[in-house]
Structures are given as structure tokens and as C-alpha cells.
């Protein structure tokens, strides 16, 4: 009797599907004309909001609303994966399983949907990304001069700081060196957001007086000059940032890039107008969107807006009160300062 029930269950599934060998082996679906990532997410794992995870992890998918017939999709109980490097329009047999959706504790890179708080991927933070110093920012100290009055210094050069024993500083203490760069205004309302802080290197105190000290530069990535800001040392060795779900709906804007250029692409560091005050957290993935302009000559008042264009994605690496530093992890079109960012793409 049980055997007949199993055969009957197999027959009521869509005819182009056959059962997979086992739960541990993913089913394979061949994408057809008209399929979309959101539709497939809803169809196979009952989660229409999962598609950004598939999109962000696959460089070959440029437009998330258009995927190619013939591409293969791996189907797990709680995730979807595009098979890389396989695009064919030949007719092949599809197969899937009737396994109910369930949480799998032994997960790999793209295991759980972001909106469920799962960790999908890690991104590397090198510590050289800089940040936006907001209005109330104050450095711990400043380089006030250099030996032989040098204007530019580097590794092994001697400099002098205004950090002393009054600040509980001691010989051997290290500090990170930053250059205060250009002021940053919001591209939409011209509000002053702060100014860029560019990391330059590291120094170590050697002789400490009450209100001053001598130091040696132990590491430098750029030229260091008197007037550079000093902050308590943080080991800038690479560390991993784990993706996490945004706790609330986030909407903001890219206000500046690390390089200061207006044109932005994947791999660039950007600064955004969302911080801990707005609910932003390290690891949040946000999506870059732009409104599509309507040519009023053709719509005759029937349409007030078009669907947003999805341009790319960023991951927050470091948060301030009202701003954050982020890495552009994907770009499918040119991104500009002023482009909007949201936590829940549609």
C-alpha cells in the first residue's frame, strides 16, 4: 500500500519533474523562458524575498528580473543556487524533490535567507577603509611636529605628538594615524555629514612627557605630515564580516566614496547616511536602487511611477552614529554618489 502511495505522489507532481536520489543531493531545475529569481524563490522554497541572495552571489546574473533559459538551478530545502558556467538552451530533463522546507544546521556559503537572520557569506575587512568623522568627532591626539622639521615622514621617522601622561599614555603605546580629508555634504540636501578620514599608518610612543611625547612611525601606507590625527590603535589585520539581516527597514543614500570620485563600482568603499541611530549594523547587506524616469509624452497620465532599477549591493563594514562605511559587493550598472540604498528590494 505504501508503495502505491509513493507512486501516486510521484505522478501528481508536474510531469517534467522526477524525484531526486535523496535529501542530501540537491534537485536540479532548468530555467525556462519567463522565469525570474523572485518567482523561483516563491515556487521552490516559498520565500519570494530570498532572490537577492541568489542574485548577489552570482556575478553572471546582471539583471535579477532576467535569467537565461537553460541555466541550471540547484534546489535545497532552504536555499537556491545557480550552477556556475552552465548556460544551454537544449531541452533537458528537470528533476526536483517533494522534501518539505526545513532548516539545515550544516550550511555553507549561501545557506539561509538574510531575512531570517542567517549567515550567507563573509566579507573581508582590511582596516584601511577609512570612515566619515561626524560633527562631534574628536581625535585622541595630533602629530604636532617631526624630527628635523620634515614636512613628510614615513617608516622609522621620529615625530612628536600632543599625547602625554595626562591621558594615561605610556611608552610603547600604539596609535593609528589618519589624515582629515575633504568635508562631505549630503548629495541630496547639502547637509554637512562630516569629513573623510583616510588611514595613513601606525606610530608607537617612545618617550612620554606630561602633555607630549616622542614617537616612531612603525607602519605607513601613505605620506604622513604634522597635523595628522591619532586614534587608539586597532589591529588592521584582515577580519571577516558576517552577513546579517537588517532588524528594521533601512532607506538611505550613498554620500561619498573612499576615492572621492562620483563614479562607483564593485570593490569600491563608500560612505552612507545610515548609522546605529537609524538601526544599521555591521554585516547588513543593502541594495542600490534608482528610480526610472517616465517620459510623459507617452504615458498620458496613466502611470505615476515605474519599478525601481536594481543597480548593485553593499555590505556595511563599520558603523558610526549617523553614517557607515560599506563595501560595494556587486554592481551591474554605473553607481553614483546620491544613489539610494534600501534593505528590502522589490
Please name the defining characteristics of this protein.
346 residues, mainly beta, Thrombin, subunit H, 3 domains, six-stranded antiparallel barrel, six-stranded antiparallel beta barrel, 4 helices, 20 strands, disordered N terminus
Tally of distinct domains: 3
Number of strands: 20
Helix content: under 10%
pLDDT averaged over residues: 75
Classify the beta-strand content into a percent band.
25-35%
Cα-based radius of gyration, to the nearest Å: 26 Å
Tell me the number of helical segments per DSSP (H or I, 4 or more residues long). 4
Compute the separation of the termini in Å.
Answer: 46 Å
Strand order of the largest sheet: 6-7-10-9-8-11
Describe the sheet with the most strands: 6 strands, antiparallel, barrel
Specify the structural class: mainly beta
> Which segments are poorly predicted (pLDDT under 50) over 5 or more consecutive residues?
1-23, 87-120
Shape from CA axes? elongated
Order of SSEs, N→C?
HEHHEEEEEEEEEEEEEEEHEEEE
Characterize the structure shown.
The chain has helices at about 1-10, 35-45, 50-55, 295-300, and strands spanning about 25-30, 70-75, 80, 120-125, 130-135, 140-145, 160, 175-185, 190-210, 215-220, 230, 240, 250-255, 265, 270, 285-290, 310-320, 325-330, 335, 340. By secondary structure, the chain is mainly beta. The protein folds into three domains: about 1-115, no CATH class; about 130-230, Thrombin, subunit H (Beta Barrel), CATH 2.40.10; about 245-340, Thrombin, subunit H. Strand 2 (about 70-75) and strand 3 form a beta hairpin. It is elongated.
